[in-house]
Design goal:
- 42% of the residues lie in helices and 15% in strands.
- It starts with 9 loop residues before the first helix and ends in a 9-residue tail after the last strand.
- It has a single domain, classed as Rossmann fold, CATH 3.40.50.
- The longest helix has 24 residues.
- The N terminus is likely disordered.
- With 212 residues, the chain is α/β, with parallel strands linked by helices.
- It has a five-stranded parallel β-sheet with strand order 3-2-1-4-5, with helices on both faces.
Amino acid sequence: MTLRPWARRIAVGTASAAALVALAVPAEAATSAPTSTSATAALTAAAEDVDYDTWQKDCQAVMDQALPYLKQRIANPKPGEKQAIVLDIDNTTLETDFGFSYPQPANAPVLEVAEYAQEHGVSLFFVTARPGIIYSVTDYNLKHVGYQVSGLYVRSFLDLFKNVADYKTAQRADIENKGYTIIANIGNSATDLSGGHAEKTYKLPDYNGQLS
């Protein structure tokens, strides 16, 4: 059962991302860079300004703009067109910084839009900066909460050294090369959306980088 308090703080929820990596990385291999007490305190203080309900309300506002467009676009495909939507994962399709357990819960406003799309024949592709070592747990998580995964792009070892925006742009180009028209690209960071290869982009809140 997923515990969902009235308002979860980002500072608490960030532990879930680390826990997800721990499922795939042996304990003896895990390392972490030292973090100063002052830096940690500053991040926590800033994060406390955003609670779960605020985040959900802000996500819903963006998806309320996306859904009418998608309904119209899906209803009017071009001849022979294979429609697709590209989605980021962390704090876009899943509640990464607010999810307190694994599998992490779906971000409800985004899931609602995704479900409409997949029920109408649109393929869902997920492009994430997550490393390939957690491909399996990520794929399971997405499917477990209701997403139909037509493709999941994670970073290989070499991709870890590339600019994230360039990496994500290349994956969208690859999806197009497979014959899909990307009718929408949804993410919560500028790196999710820059570089083109999508008809429309929808940015969810990241509160000046407070959400991953």
